[in-house]
Design brief:
Layout: H1 8-78, H2 86-95, E1 99-105, E2 111-116, H3 124-127, H4 136-143, E3 148-149, E4 153-154, E5 161-169, E6 172-178, H5 180-192, E7 197-201, E8 207-209, H6 213-217, H7 226-232, E9 237-243, E10 246-255, E11 260-267, H8 273-319, H9 333-367, E12 374-378, E13 384-387, H10 389-395, H11 399-402, H12 414-424, H13 431-438, H14 440-443, E14 448-455, E15 461-472, E16 478-487, H15 489-537, H16 543-574, E17 582-585, H17 586-604, E18 607-611, E19 617-620, H18 622-638, E20 645-652, E21 657-664, H19 671-675, H20 697-707, E22 711-717, E23 721-729, E24 752-757, H21 761-771, E25 777-782, H22 785-794, E26 799-802, E27 805-806, E28 809-810, H23 811-819, E29 829-833, H24 838-846, E30 851-854, H25 859-870
Parallel strand pairs: 18-20, 24-25, 24-26, 26-29, 29-30
Antiparallel strand pairs: 1-2, 1-6, 3-5, 4-5, 5-6, 7-8, 7-11, 9-10, 10-11, 12-13, 12-16, 14-15, 15-16, 17-19, 20-21, 21-23, 22-23, 27-28
Helix pairs in contact: 1-5, 1-8, 8-9, 12-13, 15-16, 15-21, 17-18, 18-20
């Protein structure tokens, strides 16, 4: 949007006003430059003069007590046998009105005798024997050969802020406490006739005398003021300072021999009183001058503007086709010449406009033939000048709705325009700025082709590929912009499908890698636990030790199965979880589950009961069935109560089915809770209780039973307990052979050299102890691929045992290296890994491994696999 130009009338008024103000401003600046420094010097001299007066007044007031104190001290020094008594101190106090108390101090700092004025508020007898050796003046007075004035302090004798004069008299000190009140009143009279303030400071910058005497009573410190700090450092002078929120011009000087400082200050506002009086007079003169200038400017502006308004009226007549001959007074010859040139220019523009309209009609006819591409042009303001039939078809607008009426911004999504502006680092607060963000590349002379979102007439959004180029007139100036848009719906749909396919493949690969790594890291420590437990089982143990070891193995193997469960949970949702349905003795599975939850029940005070008479074999996945039973029993114990019971019993069902019910007498559930029972992560209102849980165990239980072609039913009443019944199909009758027993017998004549590549020292040690069951087998160890290659090159082993994941690479790399070494071809390899994923097993076997064992290892299975590999 073009900024509105000021009128000629206003421009002339401004010029006259500036002309009138310039001399006044120059006068004010010159006067200030000449008078202000002189006023500052005068006030500084006045401050110094008042400071000298105050200094003299203080010197005269302090001289009398100082002379009296020195005279009394001289008398005591002359007559060392004379005691310091009231007869001596009384006259000194009477003759020196400035003292409030006078006392004599021995060389240890104890007051021997004292005389006090009645106004002091204490008795002289109260002071005798008081220790003043810690007062700052005590040490100074003993070492000085003259009377010493102290800084101010709160007197413990009178309870008031005071200063003392101390003079040495042999080994004793004569001390007089000064009454500061009289000094304050006397000095206040010096400044009362003026605006000045007089402040007396002690040697540490604390207030002795102040117009507000309470500041002296409080011992207010002014040492933080630079002027005061310089004077205390021996550099008195004058300058500016701030007190009580007001600026002052001040001077400071030392007061006699007391070590005090006299500060005299005048308010800085006093400087500007003459200036303000002159400014008032100047304001009156300026107002009159300004009024005259405005009046003259308006009269002249009206006269000149009338001529130019006449030219504007003639130009309007030419544009409207009503002639435009000059009549009336246009003023000067230059104005007449301006009108003639303007008339010729307007005639030429009308002619060019007619030619442009004809060319546009021809171009429109060509563009209307392109019905699959939207071709649009806009002027410098973004308003449509061209909207072809392809644009009408693609966007649903009619050309009559757009050309000359609407901006190209109406098609664009605001968020995309703002993002484009942010990318360019330009603002987009107005439509004009937003339009410039769309045209940045075209204005720079570049060709830009990008994807944008167009808002169609029906409100739907269409993705298009848009190219924008600048249009130029005959002089090379930008006259507008051409936009060509192509519908990208089909192309984007195909691209989205391709991206989705690649994303799914990447997610599947990442998931496989994750499951492989998790399986390896969790199984590795379990391998050591269960491996050593199996080796302990071969030793002579007591029945109690054997039972404990059996529980360790049972719980350990259950934990291994649970690790597998965690890794397989993601496959339940995707349908990729593979179950191994086999014939399972339901009674044995139930008894094993009861043994595992017995410690939990004992800790909770819940008794377990089982009726498994008539148990039969069912079709199920043994590990998943154990997981289901443990979850149901654990929940029954967890949600029961101390002294309660849990029953496990077989339930007859339809032909071909067998049920196992888990019943408790715990808190139970109402109808609303039963309706939400199988919702993932729903704790049924128990989130704030101490009962642990995630709300997903029953969901997993139900889905595992469904995958095993079974089902789960539930009945419950609030406060009366709950019954969960799992139903599984019966298995066909089959002979179940006894479980294989671990044997430590060594095959006769068996002798071989084995190389085990393992980076985990605990697992390597376990394998060494395991192979001790085969005395004829010799074991070498390698911790990584590099060491394994050196060992293999040095001596070919009879059998290679190989971990899958090693610090410097994978077992697959070593298998590939073996295939390329002719002297090692045919070497049997057993891969022993904590990675239990099917993909990793298949990759190892495909690379040439003879077998694949997963950790934790079963000792019997390992020995059988090694024996089988060595017998080939």
């Amino acid at each position: 949007m073009t900024k509105k130009k000021p009128s000629l009338r206003r421009l002339l008024a401004r010029q006259f006003i500036v002309a009138a103000l310039l001399p006044l401003v120059a006068f004010a600046v010159l006067w200030g430059a000449l008078t202000l420094p002189e006023a500052v010097r005068a006030m500084a001299q006045e401050n110094e003069h008042l400071a000298m007066q105050t200094r003299s007044r203080i010197a005269s007031q302090l001289a009398a007590p100082q002379r009296g104190m020195l005279l009394l001290a001289a008398l005591l020094r002359a007559d060392t046998a004379r005691s310091c008594d009231k007869a001596m101190l009384g006259p000194a106090l009477d003759l020196t009105q400035e003292f409030e108390a006078v006392y004599c101090v021995d060389y240890q700092g104890l007051i021997e005798e004292a005389q006090v004025r009645p106004s002091a508020g204490v008795q002289a007898s109260d002071l005798v024997g008081m220790d003043v050796s810690q007062r700052p003046f005590f040490e100074r007075a003993h070492t000085a050969d003259h009377a010493v004035w102290s800084d101010t302090f709160l007197s413990p004798l009178t309870g008031r802020v005071t200063a003392v004069l101390a003079a040495r008299a042999g080994t004793r000190l004569l001390v007089g406490e000064l009454a500061l009140g009289g000094l304050s009143k006397d000095l206040a009279l010096l400044a009362r006739a003026d605006d000045a303030i007089v402040i007396v400071l002690d040697g540490r910058g604390r207030v002795i005398v102040h117009p507000q005497q309470q500041l002296a009573d409080w011992q207010e410190s002014l040492v933080n003021l630079p002027l005061v700090r310089a004077a205390l450092d021996g550099r008195p002078g004058s300058g500016e300072l701030e007190l009580a929120g007001q600026r002052w011009l001040a001077a400071i000087a030392p007061a006699a021999d007391s070590g005090w400082q006299v500060l005299v200050a005048h308010p800085q506002a006093r400087l500007y009183r003459p200036v303000l009086r002159l400014l008032g007079l100047a304001a009156v003169v300026l107002s009159l001058s300004l009024a005259l200038a405005v009046w003259a400017a308006l009269r002249l502006a009206d006269r000149e503007a009338a001529r130019y308004r006449r030219i504007v009226a003639l130009a309007d007549a030419v544009v409207a086709g009503q002639g435009g001959e000059a009549s009336g007074d246009l003023g000067s010859e230059e104005v007449y010449a301006l009108w003639e040139r303007l008339r010729a220019l307007m005639d030429r523009l009308q002619e060019q406009e007619q030619r442009a309209k004809r060319a546009q009609l021809d171009l429109q006819a060509v563009l209307d033939a392109a019905t699959e591409v939207a071709v649009m042009s806009v002027d410098e303001r973004g308003v449509f000048r061209l909207f072809n039939r392809g644009a009408e078809k693609m966007l649903g607008y009619q050309a009559a709705q757009m050309v000359g009426l609407r901006s190209a911004l109406c098609l664009h999504e605001g968020d995309e325009v703002m993002a484009r502006a942010a990318e360019l680092g330009t603002p987009a607060d107005s439509p004009a700025q937003a339009f410039e963000a769309l045209l940045a590349a075209a204005r720079a002379g570049r060709f830009e082709f990008g994807d944008w979102s167009y808002r169609r007439a029906d409100g739907s959004v269409l993705r298009v590929s848009l190219s924008v180029t600048a249009l130029h007139d005959g002089a090379g100036r930008a006259s507008g912009f051409l936009a060509v848009a192509i519908d990208q719906t089909e192309r984007l749909r195909a691209a989205e499908l391709e991206l989705a396919r690649r994303g799914a493949e990447a997610a599947s690969q990442a998931k496989s890698e994750f499951l492989s790594r998790v399986s390896h890291e969790l199984r590795t420590p379990m391998n050591a636990i269960l491996g050593y437990a199996q080796l302990l089982a071969l030793e002579a143990l007591t029945p109690a030790q054997q039972e404990r070891l059996r529980r360790i193995e049972t719980a350990g193997w259950h934990l291994v199965h649970l690790i597998d469960d965690v890794l397989d949970l993601s496959r339940i949702e995707s349908g990729g979880l593979q179950l191994s349905l086999e014939t399972v003795d339901l009674g044995e599975a139930a008894e094993a589950a009861l043994r595992l939850v017995a410690p939990q029940a004992e800790a909770a005070g819940v008794s377990l009961h089982a009726n498994l008479v008539g148990a039969a074999h069912v079709r199920a996945d043994k590990t998943r069935l154990q997981q289901v039973l443990l979850n149901l029993l654990s929940n029954a114990i967890k949600y029961g109560h101390a002294g309660g019971s849990v029953w496990l019993s077989l339930e007859p069902g339809e032909p071909g089915w067998l049920g196992l019910a888990v019943r408790d007498d715990g808190r139970g559930m109402d109808e609303a809770q039963l309706a939400r029972l199988f919702r993932p992560f729903d704790r049924l209102g128990l989130e704030g209780t101490a009962v642990p849980g995630t709300g997903i165990g029953l969901v997993i239980t139900q889905r595992l039973l469904q995958l095993m072609q079974g089902r789960l039913t539930v009945s419950s009443r609030a406060g009366q307990g709950t019954v969960f019944t799992l139903w599984l199909p019966l298995a066909e009758t089959a002979e179940l052979g006894p479980l294989p027993l671990l044997s430590a017998a060594v095959p006769s004549g068996q002798s071989a050299d084995l190389l085990y590549v393992e980076d985990n020292a605990v697992n390597a040690g376990l394998m060494r102890e395991l192979l001790a069951l085969r005395p004829g087998l010799r074991l070498r160890l390698a911790a990584d691929l590099a060491e394994a290659r050196r060992e293999l090159a040095e001596r070919r082993p009879t059998l290679l045992l190989l971990d899958m994941h090693l610090p410097d690479g994978s077992a697959l790399e070593l298998l590939d290296w073996l295939r390329q070494r002719g002297e090692l071809a045919g070497l049997p390899v057993l891969v022993i890994s904590a990675d239990a994923t099917p993909a990793r097993r298949e990759a190892a076997l495909a690379a040439g491994a003879s077998g694949y064992l997963t950790k934790p290892l079963e000792v019997a299975q390992v020995l059988r696999s090694i024996d089988a590999a060595l017998s080939v």
